[in-house]
Amino acid sequence: MSKTCVTVCATASRLGQQFMCCGNYEHILVEKRGEKKNVGFIQLNRPKALNALCDGLMKEVGQALDAFEADGDVGAVVITGSEKAFAAGADIKEMQNRTFQECYGGNFLAHWNRVSTVKKPVIAAVNGFALGGGCELAMMCDIIYAGEKAQFGQPEILLGTIPGSGGTQRLTRAVGKSLAMEMVLTGDRIGAQEAKQSAFELTLAEGNRLEKRLFHATFATDDRKEGMTAFVEKRKASFQDN
Ligand code: CO8
């Protein structure tokens, strides 16, 4: 199965709209769909935070994936968000006051990549914002179906940090080094059409581990703290290069 094949598809919005509430989850909606109930369906459901990925949400996604992986009736899994946001990134408010020691010592994000280890095909149905960890979550899936209004981006630089779960690695393989560097260094977003045009297939190497440690290292800087605090306080960040 190829990684990060981007397909522009109007069905993404339909997938995002037609769900029923079930399961004992706080941050996601989970059900089995399709005529034969053989599609595992996970909808990120933190609408007020544009589906920002908090630790609890990612734990629940892992639990739902474990259940679908173990369910012999399920042949594939779909992960989606809302019309406005697939996910606007890792939860900045949750990360704002974390220290380097907490991130590094606790191996922050270690369990967040369960999606990439699922043996069954996982499809991301993306509409709206897929930013930071949201873009990374989509890229962990085997296939991305992107609605016309999907926007992919790695805006971590604007918060004084860097991608932490594959943004510098999978994005490079998905859209090529030049565009990936432009996106990571500017925080600029691309739409579904541009993502599709730029997408090509490459294998994933072991840059992810290094990236995670560098992500942790940004928590040792004042600028990372300032970037996230400025976001929460709704003001422009004043970076000091520290
Ligand atoms: N974390 C926490 N809350 C968020 C986030 C976020 N990432 N994004 C949006 N929200 C909240 C806002 O704070 C706001 O809440 P409130 O109403 O309480 O103030 C609410 O969602 C709505 O947001 P906005 O008012 O800002 O909505 P707009 O339509 O004006 O703007 C944007 C939408 C452009 C998406 C804007 O919200 C934004 O820029 N969000 C931040 C995007 C971002 O920087 N993402 C990267 C985060 S860092 C990261 O992802 C590190 C990755 C680590 C690995 C993860 C592995 C899976």
TrEMBL record:
Family matches, as PROSITE patterns: ENOYL_COA_HYDRATASE
Gene Ontology MF term list: delta(3)-delta(2)-enoyl-CoA isomerase activity; enoyl-CoA hydratase activity
Reactions mediated catalytically: (3S)-3-hydroxybutanoyl-CoA = (2E)-butenoyl-CoA + H2O; a (3E)-enoyl-CoA = a 4-saturated (2E)-enoyl-CoA; a (3S)-3-hydroxyacyl-CoA = a (2E)-enoyl-CoA + H2O; (3S)-hydroxyhexanoyl-CoA = (2E)-hexenoyl-CoA + H2O
Record bears the keyword Lyase: yes
Annotated Pfam families: ECH_1 (PF00378)
Keywords of this entry: Acetylation, Fatty acid metabolism, Isomerase, Lipid metabolism, Lyase, Mitochondrion, Transit peptide
Pathway recorded for this protein: Lipid metabolism; fatty acid beta-oxidation
Keyword Plastid: no
GO cellular component terms listed in the entry, alphabetical order: mitochondrial matrix
Gene Ontology terms: biological process: fatty acid beta-oxidation
Subcellular location(s) per record: Mitochondrion matrix
Location, primary (coarse class): mitochondrion
InterPro entries the UniProt entry points to: ClpP/crotonase-like_dom_sf, Enoyl-CoA_hyd/isom_CS, Enoyl-CoA_hydra/iso, Enoyl-CoA_hydra_C
EC number(s) from the headed UniProt entry: 4.2.1.17, 5.3.3.8
Description of how the protein assembles with itself and partners: Homohexamer; dimer of trimers.
PANTHER family per UniProt: ENOYL-COA HYDRATASE, MITOCHONDRIAL, ENOYL-COA HYDRATASE-RELATED
Family of the protein in this entry: Belongs to the enoyl-CoA hydratase/isomerase family.
Record protein name field: Enoyl-CoA hydratase, mitochondrial
Source species of the chain: Astatotilapia calliptera
Gene name, Swiss-Prot/TrEMBL: ECHS1
